[in-house]
Automatic annotation (TrEMBL):
InterPro entries: cNMP-bd_dom, cNMP-bd_dom_sf, RmlC-like_jellyroll
Pfam families: cNMP_binding
Protein name: Crp/Fnr family transcriptional regulator
Domain Cyclic nucleotide-binding: 29-116
């Protein structure tokens, strides 16, 4: 869990006792491939960190699934709008491989903040991560071609094409898998 130490100590300037307190309250969860961490209609009661494995977030509409995020090793995972509002989520988070996460509940995190305002730095960090990802994705759909969206995805998630199936990446980009194959081929040829 060195990446947690990097976040708490290096990025946020918190002290080791903050990390130790967070870890003492956090819980571990194991998911098997295709198991859901959360499903549409549930209230998200957690924010977590992916220790190993990979997950996807998707929404369903007319029996079709549309991927809207990926969570790889060392990243945050939550249905953030539901977590903040404590209302039902409209998304699903599914493990794409056997996955391990550590998480803290909404109630426990708020207790940490009440006991020590330094934990607001962690809350801001979590908020910033999800806000920036959301803004980049929305702007990319409004301004960029499918090829540019693919390049941004590869920059945001280095090595993702080895981690996630082409079908799921195409869904995230809003294109058909055949179109992604052409984009990848053209990107390879133009290098």
């Amino acid at each position: 869990m060195d990446f947690l130490k990097d976040i708490f100590i290096d990025k946020l300037g918190l002290e080791m006792h903050h990390l130790e307190k967070f870890i003492s309250l956090s819980r571990a969860k194991s998911l098997k491939k295709k198991e859901h961490l959360i499903q549409e209609g549930a209230v998200c009661e957690f924010v977590g960190f992916v220790i190993s494995g990979k997950l996807r977030s998707y929404v369903q509409n007319d029996n079709q699934e549309f991927n809207n995020d990926f969570y790889l090793q060392n990243s945050l995972v939550t249905a953030y709008t539901s977590y903040l509002t404590q209302s039902q989520t409209n998304c699903n988070i599914e493990a794409l491989s056997d996955t391990q996460i550590v998480y803290i509940t909404h109630k426990q995190f708020n207790t940490l903040i009440e006991e020590d305002v330094h934990f607001l730095k962690l809350a801001k960090y979590i908020s910033d991560v999800f806000f920036i990802k959301k803004c980049k994705r929305e702007t990319s759909f409004l301004k960029n071609s499918a090829t540019e969206r693919y390049e941004l995805l590869c920059k945001t998630y280095p090595g993702i094409e080895q981690e996630i199936s082409q079908y799921h990446i195409a869904s995230y980009l809003g294109i058909k898998p055949e179109s992604l194959s052409r984009i990848k081929l053209l990107t390879y040829i133009n290098k």
